[in-house]
């Protein structure tokens, strides 16, 4: 890529909020899982809440604030290795500490298996004050596909030196009900520590398309709910905010997703009948590359700029939601999904 091209390129400052982007992904097992969590509170000692480090604010589910009460909570930011590196991370961590109001925060990095060792020590300390005859129990909660089961397996490996016990996968919906207790620390003469895996829970209503697209790009929403080309375009928007060099193998700097996908498809052999580029497959592949860290590592949330405003939004959204209202939201979402057929017409006109 020539320096002159890079210098002349002007990235988009805003991303169009498409009417076709759904405002909810609240499914039946999300509601039933939340109901079950609330009914178990009396037998739970602590909560581990997982959030995707690439969207550490947007992946917060404010419903947990109301549903899980005042139970001690530990925050773990998953997929930390996919958020990039640099001095800015230190400021990001400081902002997240402020945002989380003093709750213990941990970071999970797939390249450092023992990164959750401090969390194990933290739990051991608090378990030492519990009834020695009663297990110290917690639940692991978070948005769909945020990495809850992987966190449990990592904790079990560190605390027990045993293989994984929770099923994992690369798409949401692997865990659809609360499982049985999984031992992560065994202590003779003191309380052993157990955790329960839970289904991911989405919010009943997403107030804006930008946040919905962030969660979809991170894999918290079922693939296909949002058209791949729209999702790839949203990725392009963020890549251009950081560096167009991320995709220089396939295209010069551009704001045109169809031009990028056309070139990407041809250079990767994604060709359909008639010699035409398969841009939809190219879009799916492009998004997958970013999710696995092969197409730039960066945060989607502007933590240093957005946390204050989003905190106020979360507090408003976290107002108590009755289970009847959740059922109503779920029914409305299913009705809307049945009538609406998301198209990508705007990209081909």
UniProtKB/TrEMBL annotation:
One cellular-component annotation, GO: mitochondrion
InterPro entries (UniProt xref): GTP-bd, GTP-bd_ortho_bundle_sf, P-loop_NTPase
Protein's UniProt keywords contain Nucleotide-binding: yes
Biological processes per GO annotation: mitochondrial translation
Membrane-crossing residue ranges in chain numbering: none
Keywords linked to the UniProt accession: GTP-binding, Nucleotide-binding
Domain G: 139-202
GO molecular function: GTP binding; GTPase activity
Pfam families, alphabetized: MMR_HSR1
Top-rank taxon: Eukaryota
Gene3D superfamilies associated with the record: 1.10.1580.10, P-loop containing nucleotide triphosphate hydrolases
PANTHER family: MITOCHONDRIAL RIBOSOME-ASSOCIATED GTPASE 1
Protein name per UniProt: G domain-containing protein
Source species of the chain: Elaphomyces granulatus
